[in-house]
Design a protein that fits this description.
The complex is a heterodimer of chains A (246) and B (584). Chain A has 246 residues and is of the alpha/beta class. Chain A has 12 helices and 5 strands. Chain B folds into 3 domains: 319 residues, PAS domain (Beta-Lactamase, 2-Layer Sandwich); 49 residues; 139 residues, 2-Layer Sandwich (Heat Shock Protein 90). The chains are: A alpha/beta (246), B alpha+beta (584). Chain A: This is YesN/AraC family two-component response regulator.
Chain lengths: 246, 584
């Protein structure tokens, strides 16, 4: 995997390099540039790259300008922005150039790692599976097993409060780590998953039983039945009573 | 301040005033008119009754004189005295009278009373018991002293005229007749010896002719008494009226009395007019006045209700609006309906309120602008590029030294700063708030190491609910600041649904609070403003809690806010109660 890292501060650049090499242990080719111009020049000289990670504020040619150029020259490149600016204007412009994500400094390791994994995954699929995934398999198998366990636990506890803490305690993981792992493995938030499963159960109950809607809401862990109705409508496209009658 | 007098509405006052204005003059003028009028009436009546009584006395005197002349003519008649002298013997019953004597007598008498129809009969009583009269067929020819007690009176008068009250002549053969009589003693003109009595019986006709036509007022009465005080007129007997025997018995306060004695015959004439007769007209006048004033009162009442309504209604309206303004509804304006003082007052009120409104808005906006500019200044001073790049450099340096923990704390610090400074939204998903809490806890854990543990037991479906920004983290901060003792502190953050409201609770197992502290916190939470210390920039203890409570309270109103749990055995527990809100 070829990555171009554009960052004007050497210390930060070095730190990022460390994180990246931690996450991607095999076949990594990392090229560094200290500003946009340098990066672009390197690309023009034929540097082969899959992913560009760039800062926004840099001495010569800022990140946004660089992104713009890259987008027109190499539209298929994956882009990630890392910035200390939490300004909407910047983020919007960056999104317009098709960036994968806009990470805020100081960077959270897990956040960046998740993102990198996603890119890696996407590249692998694009290339149709290489020999390189052999190594990750063992770890990934372990992760999938864990996720399955969590999903089973969620299914069993739909009627009660399901907190991240509760799930994490059962699989002996730190809540934060579990949350990230779940997101990485399944592509959706744990909370979204829980809500989806609850609504799934509600659909079954609505169809198969004649229980009151408020009771069904409660059985599915939605103590506030109006909230339940609103979520149901949002996900199913019908209110619970409409759904039951249809 | 002196106590205000009791509240009396303008309407009542106006009503009272108008009633007074109407009643008092009417009553006064009515009373004066009545008094004056009745006095006049009395005076007029008295004058006219005196005149009438005088007239009556003159007429009566003339009448009596005429009648007396009849007896006088007999008195001086020779034949009469001759015949009577023959009958001066001792009294005996059933005396024999010669027919020529009777005839002569009767002729004599008849000639005297020719054409006098009111004369019932004239009787001459001889001393021996013989009785002569003009009524040959219908009268007895003898008399009895027991039936004729009047003779004593006549004898006492010694030839003078006696007027007798109505009596029933005992000498009529037919049924007794009610008559008034004139009588006198007959004497021989030469010897002056008593030779008999003469009695003239009169029907009431003569008197009636004089008296009955006289009527002073409707219920006025005329009485005539003789010298002895016996009633002559009206005739008693048939209708036993209440006849006052003398004037002293007449109640002068109710009656108007005029009296006169005839100069001849000794008759006493009494005219009595009941005052009620005189007053009846005055009474009528008074009753008219009363009715008119009652009607006016009623009209005045209606008028005052109407006018006071017109007056009071805009005032009430203004008062109501004022109340609303008092309650803080500064957008209220009162409608100006009248073009008078009240209208001026109302428009003045409107101007005042709108100025007040504007001033408050100005001050309010100014404060917000101040805060905004302060924040902007702060933000520009802390150049994000500089700050976050510095943090990032430190983080990377830490990483290079394999200090993952430090790197993570620096990342969290960055998030903390970004979250507090940048996001302007009031309501944010609970998840973001929890992430913020997570970063905060990261930093605190770094500082306190294993003395702090935070458990977040929030249902995953609740994470998308919307909550006011920065309400959870201060609870954790508070728990650490006040709850941290010697042993490790565990803070449990949990959510619950009670009565369809969302309760976010932060419970710790720390030092806890005594009842006094709880009371102080509750008291400070209930205050609408934090006081001067805050303005001076000193962060009062408990300001963070107060701030959470106030913000929730302003956003959602009663009963939402921050509450202290009194029922915990260990540590301290705070509850945030907010509406269950999942959409903007």
């Amino acid at each position: 995997m070829n990555i171009l890292l554009v960052e004007d501060e050497p210390k930060i650049r070095q730190g990022l390099r460390d994180i990246i090499s931690d996450v991607i242990k095999h076949n990594l080719s990392l090229h560094e540039a200290s500003n946009g111009k340098e990066a672009l020049d390197w690309l023009r000289t034929g540097g082969s790259v899959d992913l560009v990670i760039t800062d926004i504020r840099m001495g010569e040619m800022n990140g946004l300008e660089l992104l713009k150029r890259i987008k027109s020259l190499y539209p298929e490149l994956a882009l990630i922005v890392i910035s200390g600016h939490d300004e909407f204007g910047y983020a919007r412009e960056a999104l317009r150039y098709g960036v994968l994500d806009y990470l805020l400094k100081p960077i959270e390791r897990v956040e960046l790692a998740t993102l990198l994994n996603k890119v890696k995954e996407a590249l692998r699929e694009k290339r149709g599976g290489d020999a390189e995934n052999e190594q990750g398999d063992d770890q990934q198998e372990k992760g999938r097993l864990l996720i399955r366990k969590v999903k089973e636990l969620v299914r069993q506890s739909l009627g009660q409060d399901i907190s991240l803490q509760f799930l994490a305690e059962h699989v002996y993981l730190h809540p934060k780590y579990l949350s990230d792992l779940f997101k990485r493995e399944t592509g959706q938030n744990l909370s979204e998953y829980v809500t989806k499963m609850r609504l799934e159960k509600a659909r079954l109950l609505l169809k198969d039983t004649t229980l009151k809607i408020a009771d069904i809401a409660e059985m599915c862990g939605f103590a506030n039945h109006k909230y339940f109705a609103s979520l149901f409508k949002q996900h199913v496209g019908q209110t619970p009573s409409e759904f039951r009658e249809s | 301040m002196p106590a205000l007098p009791k509240f009396i509405s303008i309407r009542t006052k106006m009503l009272f005033l108008l009633c007074c204005l109407i009643t008092v003059p009417f009553l006064l003028s009515g009373m004066l008119t009545y008094q004056k009028y009745s006095a006049n009436m009395e005076r007029d009546a008295r004058t006219s009754s005196e005149q009438i009584v005088e007239q009556v006395s003159i007429n009566l005197e003339r009448y009596i004189k005429e009648m007396e002349r009849i007896t006088m003519s007999l008195y001086y008649d020779d034949h009469v005295s001759q015949i009577l002298e023959m009958h001066t013997g001792a009294f005996k019953d059933n005396s024999y009278l010669r027919s020529d004597e009777l005839f002569k007598m009767s002729q004599m008498i008849s000639s005297v009373i020719y054409e006098r129809t009111e004369v019932e009969g004239i009787f001459i009583f001889a001393l021996d018991g013989s009785l002569f009269s003009n009524l040959q067929e219908t009268a007895k020819i003898s008399w009895k002293p027991t039936d004729n007690s009047w003779m004593e009176t006549a004898r006492a008068k010694d030839g003078g005229l006696v007027i007798l009250p109505p009596n029933d002549g005992s000498y009529y053969l037919e049924k007794p007749r009610r008559v008034i009589s004139l009588a006198r003693l007959l004497k021989d003109p030469l010897t002056n010896q008593v030779i008999g009595y003469v009695k003239v019986d009169l029907t009431s006709k003569g008197f009636e002719k004089i008296l009955t036509s006289i009527q002073i007022t409707e219920n006025s009465k005329l009485y005539i008494f003789n010298e002895k005080g016996e009633t002559i007129f009206p005739f008693s007997g048939e209708d036993k009226e209440e006849i006052p025997v003398n004037t002293s018995e007449v109640n002068t306060s109710k009656m108007l009395v005029s009296e006169r004695e005839t100069s001849y015959g000794g008759l006493h004439i009494q005219g009595i007019i009941p005052k009620s007769d005189l007053q009846s007209e005055a009474r009528q006048l008074i009753s008219y006045t009363l009715w008119i004033s009652l009607a006016s009162l009623f009209i005045a009442f209606l008028a005052s209700v109407f006018t006071s309504n017109r007056l009071v209604k805009p005032i009430r309206h203004l008062h109501m609006k004022m109340k609303r303004v008092q309650n803080g509804e500064l957008s209220e304006r009162a409608a100006v309906t009248t073009n008078d003082e009240i209208g001026l007052l109302t428009s003045g009120f409107n101007v005042m309120v709108s100025q007040l409104d504007k001033m408050i808005k100005d001050v309010y906006e100014l404060t917000i602008r101040d805060k905004e500019s302060e924040l902007a200044a702060l933000q520009s001073q802390i150049n994000p590029h500089f700050l976050y790049n510095t943090l990032e450099s430190i983080s990377m340096a830490a990483r290079r030294d394999r200090n993952e923990e430090l790197s993570q704390v620096i990342a969290s610090l960055g998030r903390l700063l970004q979250y507090t400074v940048n996001k302007q939204e009031r309501l944010i998903p609970l998840q973001e708030e929890l992430e913020f809490v997570d970063h905060y806890v990261n930093i605190q854990t770094f500082r306190l190491e294993n003395r702090l543990q935070v458990q977040v037991q929030v249902d995953l479906s609740y994470e998308s609910l919307l909550v006011p920004k920065l309400i959870v983290q201060p609870l954790i901060e508070n728990a650490i600041e006040h709850g941290m003792g010697n042993r490790p502190l565990t803070i449990t953050l949990s959510t619950k649904l009670i009565e369809q409201d969302l309760w976010i609770s932060a419970a710790d197992n720390g030092k806890g609070m005594d009842a006094e502290t709880i009371a102080r916190i509750e008291q400070s939470l209930s205050r609408p403003s934090i006081g001067k210390e805050r303005e001076q920039g000193k962060r009062q203890k408990g300001f963070a809690l107060w701030n959470i409570h106030r913000r929730i309270h302003i956003l959602y109103g009663e009963p939402y806010g921050l509450y202290v749990d009194r029922n915990v055995k260990e540590g301290a527990t705070f509850h945030i109660r907010i509406p269950f809100n999942w959409e903007d």
